[in-house]
């Protein structure tokens, strides 16, 4: 069973708007699965997000082009955007 899904991209994580169009777009540190689906964020296929949610598997979205990011993601260090997971669930319930 997977503990986490690592989603490597060409941007630093998930933004509130498309950073290629809006230079003022904000990088989001964390999101719930529901925020991804309700905002229709183009993180990954909605079926994949739903499967991760149903199985409580967090998703880390990070920039593949930045040196060291893969190692950070594998080590569980803060990198990119965290979707789901215990930390996000705790923050959403407060």
From TrEMBL:
InterPro entries: AceGlu_kinase-like_sf, Asp/Glu/Uridylate_kinase. GO terms for biological process: UDP biosynthetic process. Keywords: ATP-binding, Kinase, Nucleotide-binding, Pyrimidine biosynthesis, Transferase. Pfam families: AA_kinase. Pathway: Pyrimidine metabolism; CTP biosynthesis via de novo pathway; UDP from UMP (UMPK route): step 1/1. Residues 1-63 form the Aspartate/glutamate/uridylate kinase domain. The keyword Nucleotide-binding applies. It is an enzyme of class 2 (transferase). GO terms for molecular function: ATP binding; UMP kinase activity. Its EC number is 2.7.4.22. PANTHER family: URIDYLATE KINASE (PTHR42833), URIDYLATE KINASE PUMPKIN, CHLOROPLASTIC (PTHR42833:SF4). This is UMP kinase. It comes from Ambrosia artemisiifolia (Common ragweed). The lineage of its organism: Eukaryota, Viridiplantae, Streptophyta, Embryophyta, Tracheophyta.
């Amino acid at each position: 069973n997977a503990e986490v899904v690592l989603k490597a991209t060409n941007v630093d994580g998930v933004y509130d708007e498309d950073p290629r169009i809006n230079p003022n777009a904000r990088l989001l540190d964390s999101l719930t699965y529901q925020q991804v689906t309700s905002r229709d964020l183009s993180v990954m296929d909605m079926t994949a997000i739903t499967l991760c949610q149903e199985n409580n598997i967090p998703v880390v979205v990070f920039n593949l082009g930045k040196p060291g990011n893969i190692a950070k993601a594998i080590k569980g260090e803060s990198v990119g955007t965290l979707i789901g997971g215990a930390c996000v669930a705790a923050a959403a319930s407060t």
